[in-house]
Amino acid sequence: MKQKILMIGPLMALVQEALAQNYDLLRYWEADDKDALLAAEGAKIKGIATDGHLGASRALMDRLPNLEIIVCQGVGYDAIDLEAARARGIAVTNTPEVLSNAVAELTLGMMIGLCRRIPQCDQYVRKGHWLKAHYPLTAELTGAQVGILGLGRIGKEIAARCCAFKMQISYHGRTQQANQPYRYYSDLVAMARDVDWLVVIAPGSAETQGLVSREVLEALGPKGCLVNVARGSLVDETALVALLTSGKLGGAALDVFAQEPKVPEALFGLDNVLLLPHVGSATVQTRRAMGQLVIDNLAAHFAGRPLLTPVA
Q: Which residues form the signal peptide (predicted)?
């Protein structure tokens, strides 16, 4: 008999097809009466397939008494109630490492785009302004100071690429890491005050919510730029909008927001921001690798093998 898996929302076709073939797959998002579905099938469900946004709540887990594993397509698992899962002995996996290069690549692209004003240059040409005058001079990344909030797998890939751009690199985290060639700051405000760019790539959690506070943003200042490729919850978005609007913060390149897909409308008219629709890992190669990890983690669990990427 096939194990019963509850898929919370639509995942990529690779995952849906594989899970439909190998398991008794229940598509939760398609159910007209979700409560009735859980009442009828909850005791039989052994696994949940979800992503970093949909997650899995304690309330949902409580409806699934025989749940054994939650597999998450995404490196972030803050939407999964990890405490509830651990209390129940439910395994949780995510899809780290395979997206590090894609996110790091996009981060540098965002920095270049904001620094060299690439979107504005594109519009300058399209609107015929170049026929009348040369585009104004911009800044550059070479020699600039960058502070990385969260020197994990992705943070290290970003740092390596910043090195290639001849930037000076610092980082902030809970503790200093051994054998890293970059300057460590135990105080985030102090690092923000000393750098030109602040890149946010720390995990989203209750502990990190609002970590990039108004004080941090004010320390970054009118010549500093914020880049967020982590979670919108890490940044005080109200303060961010106010400081960008008033010119007290130099600029921001944002791939994530507090209430996605809703983006503060006040940002739309600003010329010192670059706005992306959370596409850090959105490449064909990376999403395929993430999807395969979802499939492989489920297969390993039900075969009694060690999980490939368990959440610690």
A: none
Q: Exposed, middle or buried, 270 (CB in 10 Å: 0-12/13-18/19+)?
A: middle
Do residues 124 and 243 touch, judged by C-beta distance below 8 A?
A: no
CATH code of 191's domain = 3.40.50.720
Residue 309 lies in a domain: no
Same domain, residue pair 65 and 149: no
SS3 28: helix
Q: Is residue 124 part of a domain?
A: yes
237 neighbors 264 (Cβ within 8 angstroms): yes
Catalytic residue positions?
231, 260, 278
Q: Per the confidence metrics, is the pTM higher than 0.85? A: yes
Beta-strand ranges (E) seen in 1-66 are 4-7, 24-27, 45-51
The predicted-structure confidence for 166-189, as pLDDT tens digits, reads as follows 999 999 999 999 999 999 999 999
The dihedral region occupied by 221, where left means phi > 0, alpha psi between -120 and 50, and beta the remainder, is left
Q: How many residues does the chain have?
A: 312
- The CA distances from residue 254 to 44, 71, 150, in Å, are 42, 27, 16
pLDDT above 80 for 274: yes
With bands split at pLDDT 50, 70 and 90, how would you rate the model's confidence at 165?
very high
Range of the domain at 133: 100-275
In one letter, which amino acid is 37?
L
- Per-residue model confidence as pLDDT tens digits over 229-264: 999 999 999 999 999 999 999 999 999 999 999 999
In a domain, 229, yes or no: yes
- Is residue 168 domain-shared with residue 192, that is, in the same domain? yes
- For residue 169, which of 188, 194, 187, 186 has the smallest C-alpha distance? 194
Q: Based on the structure, what is the number of domains in the chain?
A: 2
Q: How far apart are CA 144 and CA 112, in angstroms?
A: 12
